[in-house]
Design a protein that fits this description.
267 residues; alpha/beta; Rossmann fold; 2 domains; six-stranded mixed beta sheet; 6 strands
Length: 267
C-alpha cells in the first residue's frame, strides 16, 4: 500500500491541512481587520499615536506609525511638514503637563531629528521647525555635543513660571539652529554647558550662529560649567554666563510675571 508523502510528513490528511490553513488565514484576517479598526480617526489622534511610538522602548514603532499614515493616503510631504511638527509640539505639551518625563521627551525628540535628517535628502523636510515648543520667546539649546540635559529641562520650567514661553532645541545641528534663530521669534538664546569640553566647543557654535543670522538675540550660557570655570562668557563668545534663570531674565531685560520661585535653577 502506498502512502501519501504529504500525509506521512505532516501527520494529517490533505482535507485536515486545508482546514487548519483556513483557520489560520481567518485568524490573521481578523487580527488585521481589528488593527485597522483601532487606527486613529483624526489628525490629533494620529499625532498622539506617533508621540507614544516615539517615546516607546521600541526603536522602530514610530516608523510603523508613519507607514500606517502612508497606507491611508497621507503623503510624505504632509507627514514631515504637518505631522512631525505637531508631534514636536505635542511632546512639549506632555512634558509641561507632567504626562511625560524629560527622558521620554528627549528620546522622542532625538527620534524626530533622525526622521527629519533622513527625509532632508528626499526634499520632504525642508524648512520644518524641529524644536520642541514649551512656549514662545526663549530658545533653550541643548547642543548635540552636550550629554547632560536635565538642568535645561528644569530651567525651562523655571522660565515658564516666570511667564515666558520656551522652545527646547535638542541636539540640533548648527544649520538647524541658524534656521530656527533666523525666524526672529526669540528674545534670548540659552545654552546649557555642563563641562569644560562643552565650553570649548560652544565658542565655535556661538560664532557660527551669529555669523549666519542678521539679528541674533542675546546668547546666555548656564549650567554646571559656569560654576566651575572662570570667564565662560569670554571663552564662548556669549553675551552672559549666568548661574540662575532669574539672572538670565534680568541680564536680558525680559518682561516676566512677578512670581517668587522656591528654587531658581541655572541652565
Amino acid at each position: 500500500m502506498e502512502l501519501d508523502p504529504r500525509r506521512q510528513r505532516s501527520g494529517m490528511s490533505a482535507p485536515q491541512g486545508h482546514g487548519i490553513r483556513f483557520l489560520v488565514e481567518s485568524a490573521l484576517r481578523s487580527i488585521a481587520s481589528e488593527r485597522v479598526t483601532n487606527w486613529p480617526t483624526t489628525r490629533a489622534q494620529w499625532v498622539e499615536r506617533l508621540c507614544e511610538a516615539l517615546m516607546s522602548t521600541s526603536e522602530t514603532s514610530h516608523q510603523s506609525v508613519i507607514a500606517e499614515l502612508i497606507s491611508i493616503g497621507v503623503s510624505s510631504q504632509d507627514i514631515y511638514q504637518i505631522f512631525v511638527p505637531e508631534a514636536a509640539r505635542h511632546l512639549g505639551k506632555l512634558w509641561l503637563h507632567d504626562e511625560a518625563s524629560f527622558v521620554d521627551v528627549s528620546i522622542g525628540a532625538a527620534r524626530l531629528q533622525a526622521l527629519l535628517r533622513e527625509a532632508e535628502g528626499k526634499g520632504h523636510a525642508k524648512g520644518v521647525d524641529t524644536s520642541i515648543p514649551l512656549g514662545q520667546s526663549v530658545l533653550i539649546v541643548i547642543p548635540e555635543f552636550e550629554q547632560h540635559s536635565l538642568g535645561a529641562f528644569v530651567a525651562a520650567d523655571q522660565f515658564r513660571r516666570h511667564g515666558l514661553w520656551v522652545h527646547m532645541a535638542i541636539a540640533l545641528n548648527p544649520d538647524e539652529l541658524v534656521n530656527l534663530v533666523a525666524t526672529g521669534r526669540f528674545s534670548m538664546i540659552g545654552v546649557t554647558a555642563a563641562s569644560r569640553k562643552t565650553v570649548e566647543k560652544l565658542a565655535g557654535l556661538v560664532e557660527y550662529i551669529r555669523s549666519r543670522t542678521e539679528t541674533c538675540p542675546p546668547v546666555v550660557v548656564g549650567g554646571r560649567a559656569v560654576d566651575e570655570i572662570a570667564d565662560v562668557a569670554r571663552r564662548t563668545g556669549a553675551d552672559f554666563a549666568v548661574k540662575s534663570v532669574r539672572e538670565a531674565v534680568e541680564r536680558c531685560g525680559l518682561a516676566t510675571v512677578a512670581e517668587t520661585l522656591s528654587s531658581d535653577i541655572a541652565l
